[in-house]
From TrEMBL:
Transmembrane segment boundaries: 21-38, 68-85, 91-108, 115-133, 139-159, 331-353, 359-378, 385-401, 429-449, 455-475
Domain Integral membrane bound transporter: 345-470
Secretion signal span: none
Superkingdom of this protein's organism: Bacteria
Primary location: membrane
Compartments reported by the entry: Cell membrane
Family membership noted in the UniProt record: Belongs to the YccS/YhfK family.
InterPro entries: Memb_transporter_dom
A GO CC term assigned to this protein in UniProt: plasma membrane
Membrane topology listed for this record: Multi-pass membrane protein
Listed name of the protein: Inner membrane protein YccS
Species name: Macrococcoides canis
Pfam assignment, any one: FUSC_2
Keyword annotations of the record: Cell membrane, Membrane, Transmembrane, Transmembrane helix
Length: 626
């Protein structure tokens, strides 16, 4: 328990984001001061709400950042317009509040987008509802919010232009650099640790490339070049692991020199000063790796007009993920349904009992549930309550000092910056500034500041926390540790099915993308279930630690199968060998589900997929205690 309370007030200095906090402070301050000069503070507040779209921007290319700002701004403007129109209709208000809470939550959960999720859509909708009821001004308010988004686009684009942005290029360069580190550690004890880092790096790059695919034809060749370089990195990585699986103990020095030079070339996009030659003496065992390195050089410096290959990314497009995750088989969808049930209950209670600020209750419930595990949700509930109390005390002090309006506006901008600086570092301290900002903004929205807002705030937070905690405890995620064996077994059976269609002589995969999505969906389910299980009070942490190795091995198998699907693998193997592999997959699945211990099968190595034999053999060796 002492550790629990310690975490409430522990500040992770590494996660303090001064740069983002500074940008948010400037974005909020500009419209607030400009409209103050023209004696239109309410309009300044509306304009500044549009700048909250910056909060949804994380690392990415300039194009992906602008896309995020545009989508977020449209959502915020729509929330403001509808909030202004529906404030007098309790039923319609409740339905739309529910939509602005649940839809962004599902999107962020499904796409694994870190950040505030529904938070500021709820805030924008709520502020629209508490402003003076003037439906004829709804469109005007929305336009002001959009104007704030436009300012955000301009500022972020200028920052990117000034500092430069090679986000995707840097990710691809890191792919190659991490593979070089793996090759240097080929015989060292840290090989497996670096191996895990490489796989995570490659998956991050795949996701990033999926999110920035250009719609403009002229940009397509350079995108294809980058995607090809990434896929060649995946190929080199897979071949290095295949060499390791064959039992080869040492990589040749010439191969290491080749890789060292290609890393420099990918990073700098030019030939190294020390020169580049194709006269390396490469052992026959490493021919496949060398061929991929030479291919990397060709793609890297090929004229743009020659980059006409249309490649297939193994990571599904985000729209595909959003649509196809709407199924009971998706953990992201199931968790979103549970969230929706608790949110619907909270909004219903707020409206039935005529709570003055129902969106504050919805906001509190959301802030607790966004923790995604029982422990983290309860921790956020405590943080929100404690931070709110202190924040109310800060607001009371501000009201006692009775500062001029301009200082109130500056404080709103300062607290917005502090929020972004601290929210990832410590939620309790961030809640102090969040509470201060929300109460001051609410006062500006209705035209006057009053301590009564503070009393309403603490009442709504207490009610919201109680609803969220009860919801998490009763219909939350306490069965995740029990479901983990089942979801891992399901993934193994999907992998076995994909393996069969890849290697069987009498079957052919008609739609590789569909198979890739099935692998992606079930691997996502496994990782989400594992994360949720680790946040349960009753979970056996030692058993879960053992599952970590199983999940890592299944991730590697998924990576290998995805690569073969993408490359159009056509090789068939003997039916007896095929049967042994399928039986091995099923035995591991049965062991996880039912605790049945089977003797390990000796698997014959498959040419071009030695790593698969090693991974499946390792899976058979793991014995889990129930």
């Amino acid at each position: 328990m002492a550790e629990y309370y310690k975490r409430l007030f522990y500040i992770d200095v590494k996660k303090i984001n001064v740069a983002k906090g500074t940008v948010q402070f400037i974005l909020m301050l500009i419209p607030l001061l400009i409209f103050y000069i023209f004696d239109s503070i309410g309009s300044g507040l509306l304009f500044s709400i549009g700048t909250l779209s910056n909060i949804y921007v994380f690392n990415g290319t300039k194009r992906s950042k602008i896309k995020t700002i545009v989508v977020s701004t449209i959502g915020l403007a729509l929330a403001m317009i509808l909030g202004s129109l529906t404030a007098e209709s309790m039923l319609l208000f409740g339905i739309l509040l529910f939509c602005f809470a649940t839809i962004p939550y599902y999107v962020c959960n499904t796409l694994s987008i870190k950040g505030p999720s529904s938070t500021f859509f709820i805030v924008a909708y709520g502020l629209g509802s508490i402003m003076p009821y003037q439906p004829e001004l709804a469109l005007y308010r929305g336009i002001l919010v959009i104007s704030g988004g436009i300012l955000t686009v301009i500022i972020i684009a200028m920052i990117d232009e000034f500092y430069g942005n090679r986000y995707i290029d840097d990710l691809v360069a890191e792919d190659y650099n991490s593979i070089l580190k793996l090759m240097r550690s080929f015989n060292n004890d840290d090989f497996e640790t670096i191996n895990e880092h490489v796989m995570r790096s490659l998956m991050t790059t795949s996701d990033a490339l999926s999110s920035v695919k250009p719609a403009i034809t002229q940009q397509q060749p350079e995108y294809e070049r980058t995607l090809l370089l990434h896929q060649l990195a995946e190929g080199i990585y897979a071949e290095v692991l295949d060499v390791k699986a064959k039992g080869i103990e040492q990589l040749s020095e010439d191969l290491m020199n080749m890789m060292d030079k290609i890393v420099s070339m990918v990073k700098e996009r030019e030939y190294p000063q020390s020169g580049w030659t194709r006269n390396f003496r490469i052992d026959e065992s490493f021919n496949h790796i060398a061929a991929l390195i030479y291919k990397t050089e060709e793609i890297l410096f090929a004229p743009t007009k020659h980059i006409e290959i249309r490649t297939l990314n193994t990571r599904p497009h985000f729209i595909t993920r959003l649509i196809r995750n709407i199924t009971p088989e998706s953990n992201a969808f199931v968790i979103s349904i549970k969230y929706a049930v608790i949110m619907a209950l909270a909004i219903t209670i707020a409206l039935v009992f005529h709570i003055d600020r129902p969106y504050w209750i919805a906001l509190t419930v959301h802030s607790v549930l966004v923790g995604n595990t029982t422990l983290l949700s309860l921790e956020r509930a405590t943080s929100r309550f404690v931070g709110t109390l202190i924040g109310i005390a800060v607001v009371a002090l501000i009201l006692w000092l009775n500062p001029d309006t301009i200082w109130i506006l500056i404080l709103i901008a300062i607290t917005a910056g502090i929020n972004e600086m601290l929210v990832a570092s410590n939620y309790t301290f961030a809640m102090i500034s969040i509470t201060t900002q929300v109460l001051l903004m609410s006062g500006i929205a209705v035209g006057h500041l009053s301590i009564s807002f503070a009393y309403l705030r603490i009442t709504d937070v207490v009610i919201g926390v109680l609803i969220a905690v009860v919801g998490v405890t009763i219909i939350g995620r306490k069965s995740a540790s029990n479901k983990l064996p089942e979801v891992v077994a399901t993934l193994l059976r999907i992998q076995a099915s994909t393996f069969y269609y890849l290697y069987a002589s009498n079957h052919k995969i008609k739609d590789p993308r569909n198979e890739m999505f099935k692998l992606y969906l079930n691997l996502s389910n496994v990782k989400m279930t594992y994360s949720n299980a680790y946040g349960e009070f009753s979970a056996n942490k030692q058993v879960l630690k053992n599952y970590y190795l199983i999940i890592f091995l299944t991730e590697q198998i998924t990576f290998l199968l995805n690569r073969q699907l993408r490359d159009g693998h056509t090789k068939c193997i003997d039916n007896e060998v095929l049967g042994h592999y399928l039986l091995a997959f099923e035995r591991v699945a049965q062991q996880l589900e039912k605790g049945i211990l089977f003797p390990s099968l000796t698997l014959e190595s498959i040419d071009g997929a030695h790593q698969l034999q090693q991974l499946l053999s390792e899976l058979q060796q793991i014995k889990l205690l129930k």
